[in-house]
Design goal:
About 40% of the residues are buried. The N terminus is likely disordered. This protein has a nine-stranded mixed β-sheet with strand order 1-2-6-5-4-7-8-15-14, sandwiched between helices. Strands 3-13-10-9 form a four-stranded mixed β-sheet. A two-stranded antiparallel sheet has the order 11-12. It is an alpha/beta fold. It has two domains: about 190 residues, Rossmann fold; about 80 residues, no CATH class. Helix 2 packs antiparallel against helix 9 and helix 3 runs parallel beside helix 4.
């Protein structure tokens, strides 16, 4: 089901809120499940309330957090080549677009190559979508935006009702190494969902953080200013605010760990002491041993061979890979096969 707003910005912006067909898990149900599990876990999707989103923007500016700069370097150097890669006009879809700033270089290259461009961003934040779209529309008069307020799955389903114009291919963006937050089976499942709405010859531009030494990785997730620690601890602030939790932030610390066996950085919240935390709205008391952690995020770092294997399992072939000069990050062009 869709609720469309009135046309905005000279009729070039359409906002479509996608209402899920069935109610899925809620913040409350996921918190109950995760803090009752062994080991305890909270899902990283819940980092991004208003404060968490601002903290993540600050993380992206930190000197230790190389990912944003590395990906921007790739787009600055290779956007024109990416725009020409399908050798046909395209419409541009983006998963988890946020405010669209990181996509601007590619939009600029596509507009320069083909003139008019249809951009279809998908994000759960309506304010980020609208603000980002209006900023882009102001810069690019050749741009039209149909924005979907939805999670990935609902947005992808909605795209089935938005076929590409004759002669156009679809280029889907999944940037920022978000794919690395998913376990291997989840990554393949998402790629198959994306492939399911694309035609043969359509493409996915996939951002992937590459495997590197712990001396580079750990500071990126445990910066000297403590911004990442605040971002992680904000999950407890959110539980306190929205669910009547009684977490004492001083009783927990941020921990970042490199799990070499699984090839991932893990973020945890570690209990500094034995304690019991009530969460009023859930009727739940959560017991912690000293040193016990809540696992809040995994960020997998992949080898090139893993990217090719993942692409094949998801129904794509790896056409081209671009990396930054330091070889830290990769943008991968996957073609629907």
């Amino acid at each position: 089901m869709r609720r469309d707003s009135q046309p905005l910005t000279e009729d070039r912006l359409r906002m479509a809120e996608i209402v899920p067909a069935a109610a899925g898990p809620t913040f409350a149900s996921d918190v109950r499940r995760g803090l009752s599990a062994e080991p305890k876990v909270l899902l990283p999707r819940y980092f991004y309330d208003a404060l968490g989103s601002r903290l993540f923007e600050a993380i992206c500016e930190l000197p230790e957090y190389y990912l944003t700069r590395a990906e921007a370097e790739i787009l600055e150097r290779h956007a024109a080549e990416m725009a020409a890669a399908l050798n046909s006009p395209v419409r541009l879809v983006e998963l988890g677009s946020g405010d669209g700033r990181k996509t601007r270089l590619l939009i600029e290259a596509l507009v320069a190559r083909q003139g008019h461009l249809l951009y279809l961003p998908i994000d759960v934040s309506s304010s980020a979508l609208e603000q980002g779209a209006e900023r882009l529309l102001h810069v690019f008069p050749e741009l039209t935006v149909t924005a979907f307020v939805a999670d990935y799955q609902a947005g992808l389903r909605a795209l089935r009702n938005e076929p590409a114009a004759p002669g156009y291919r679809t280029l889907t963006l999944f940037l920022g190494s978000t794919i690395g937050n998913l376990d291997p089976a989840e990554r393949v499942a998402l790629l198959r969902e994306i492939r399911g709405v694309l035609r043969t010859g359509d493409a996915l531009l996939l951002g992937v953080d590459l495997r590197k030494g712990a001396s580079v990785l750990l500071p990126a997730y445990d910066d000297a200013l403590g911004v990442t620690a605040a971002f992680n601890l904000n999950l407890l602030v959110r539980i306190n605010r929205e669910l009547g939790g009684a977490f004492d932030l001083a009783a927990f610390r941020h921990r970042a760990r490199w799990n070499g066996e699984l090839g991932r950085i893990e973020m945890h919240l570690e209990s500094r002491r034995e304690q019991t935390v009530p969460i009023r709205d859930l009727g739940l008391e959560v017991r912690f041993a000293a040193g016990e952690t809540i696992h809040t995020e995994s960020s997998y770092k992949l080898e090139a061979a893993q990217v090719a294997e993942m692409a094949a399992e998801g129904g794509f072939s790896l056409r081209k890979t671009w990396t930054d000069r330091g070889g830290r990050f990769a943008a991968n062009l996957l073609i629907g096969s």
